[in-house]
Amino acid sequence: MSPRRPIIGVFDSGFGGLTVLKALLELVPDAEYAYFGDTARLPYGSKSVETVARYAVEASHFLESQGAKMLVIACNTATALALDRICAAAHVPVVGVVNPGAEAASSATRNRKVVVIGTEATVSSHAYRKALEERGLQAREKACPLLVPLVEEGWVEHSVTEQVARIYLGEAFADGFHDADTMVLGCTHYPLLKPLLRRVAPDHVSIVDSAESTARAVSAHFQELLPDSNSVEERRSAPRLKFFATDSTEKFRRLGQRFLGLPIENVEHVDLKE
Amino acid sequence: MSPRRPIIGVFDSGFGGLTVLKALLELVPDAEYAYFGDTARLPYGSKSVETVARYAVEASHFLESQGAKMLVIACNTATALALDRICAAAHVPVVGVVNPGAEAASSATRNRKVVVIGTEATVSSHAYRKALEERGLQAREKACPLLVPLVEEGWVEHSVTEQVARIYLGEAFADGFHDADTMVLGCTHYPLLKPLLRRVAPDHVSIVDSAESTARAVSAHFQELLPDSNSVEERRSAPRLKFFATDSTEKFRRLGQRFLGLPIENVEHVDLKE
Questions:
Q1: Cα gap B74→B213, rounded to integer Å
Q2: How far, in Å, CA of B133 to CA of B139, rounded?
Q3: How many angstroms separate the CA atoms of B7 and B241, rounded?
Q4: How much is the mean pLDDT over chain B?
Q5: Which of A95, A116, B24, B186 has a C-alpha 20 to 30 A away from that of B81?
Q6: CA-closest candidate to residue B128, choices B48, B202, B66, B208
Q7: Is A187 among the residues known to form the active site?
Q8: Where do runs of H (alpha helix) occur along chain B?
Q9: What is the pLDDT of residues A143-196, one digit of tens each?
Q10: Fold held by A98-210
């Protein structure tokens, strides 16, 4: 029997990280995936640093116990608030979503002025502003707390969502940021709103999807994990997926499909003891 | 020293239960109050029975450990999904919000047709329908998942909230329920939307606020808890309040004031080990 392919552990508070997994399946098909959604305790976006860090470290330990050889923190809030704590607690390489997003914004922008939209917790942490300023960019961060519930309601092309987006983006592209030429989607729910946000954002703005940027960063690291002995046949077969959720597995299957764009099978319930 | 007044423990997943506490302070000023908001794990409204029941039983044990002589489950989701489990685990009387709400609806309605609005989990449990049908009423339950995030965004009089409410209530008062004459606010966030919902609901509809009905139910039971030796002076002094939250105490103070309508002091962080 050929050796198993390396397992990449992907973690999010719920379903949003499935947009990152979707991008990973396209760019890194040579892996197996274990996805952990902490659906019993979502959302993280309105919670404090201490709470999010504790939950994220527990999730990372769980994924390592499932054999993950690399961890992808597919949650902007967990990355923004707790990446340092997760890295300190992990025994394998860890990739978050903030630095890849900032790097992609740095490549996309011409006038070095960038708007980032995200959850309240991500914005309050200023993790994006820090990452963008380190790259010599000016950043405006804007919390958009209603966008996640609107996506979860399925209103991704609804007139109400468009009005809400107009209000939020109107406030973001103001006061010296009218001419920002790049907008980072700093929440893994937002890729589902990309067509709507494309219409609402000023025409000259490039939209950076941190899910895609993160998948590219993972792809760059992944080759190091591949054992030489892996046969070409084994590597070329379809990626294997396993899902873990802390709340209802039925709901995970049902809602998750919208984010992943594929049917979801093989969901196991996990009860993390704090 | 005169004996202490009885402590009533009030529990919610977050801030909404403060609307019940507000009603209690008016109707039952002779008590002390310990309020527990499970803010690290909110919201409960989108979670499964098993998860909500486990969290609610932990919270009840915590409030009993703080000396509560009566428990008020000031959360529609926890009441709807887990009242039986909480009652079985508790050593003191327990009052939930569903039966008082159903009782008030039964008094208010003339044509015995009632609409209930609430979270996804409350509606899926059909706890209100059951409680209303037991009283000989016909019930239509409607999940309104965007209303809680809109209240938490502070948009209680916003045109977007009005449009969302029109969509939800339009669907609720349809298909044989056009003439329902009573609407139960089956979520403790909704009292903050009462003026807006009053405008959007059909004119002939009476609105039942389960926070008020619950306070009346507690008041009826409370006299039994009063020790005879309590001096009139002691009973007449202002109620004492203590707050416990599982996430940031600063955020609890800040957001909580909007729900309670009073400044919030004396918040302690609690870390429930599962």
A1: 11
A2: 7
A3: 9
A4: 93
A5: B24
A6: B208
A7: yes
A8: 18-27, 49-65, 76-89, 98-108, 120-125, 127-134, 147-152, 159-172, 194-200, 210-222, 232-236, 249-260
A9: 999 999 999 999 999 999 999 999 999 999 999 999 999 999 999 999 999 999
A10: Rossmann fold (3.40.50)
Is A126 strand, coil or helix?
Answer: coil
Contacts of B39 in chain A (CB under 8 A): 47
Per-residue model confidence as pLDDT tens digits over A106-120: 999 999 999 999 999
The percent of residues in chain A predicted with pLDDT above 90, rounded, is 87
Active site residue A144: no
Closest partner residue to A273 among B48, B51, B274, by Cβ? B274
A–B CB contacts, 8 A cutoff, strictly below: 64
Q: Indicate whether B188 pLDDT > 90.
A: yes
Counting other chains too, the contacts that B127-134 makes at CB distance below 8 Å and 24 or more residues apart are B127/B79, B127/B80, B127/B81, B127/B83, B127/B98, B128/B80, B128/B98, B128/B101, B128/B102, B128/B184, B128/B186, B131/B98, B131/B99, B131/B101, B131/B102, B132/B102, B132/B105, B132/B106, B134/B102
* Same topology between domain B7-96+213-269 and domain B98-211: yes
Q: Which CATH architecture has domain A7-96+213-269?
A: 3-Layer(aba) Sandwich (3.40)
Domain B98-211 is found in CATH 3.40.50.1860: yes
How many percent of chain A have pLDDT more than 70?
A: 94
Model-level pTM? 0.91
A58: chain B residues, CB-CB within 8 Å: none
Contacts of A48 in chain B (CB under 8 A): 40, 247-248, 251
What gap in Å lies between CA B83 and CA B66, rounded to an integer? Answer: 20
Rg of chain A over Cα atoms, rounded to whole angstroms, equals 18
Q: In which residue are the tokens 């009566």 written?
A: B70
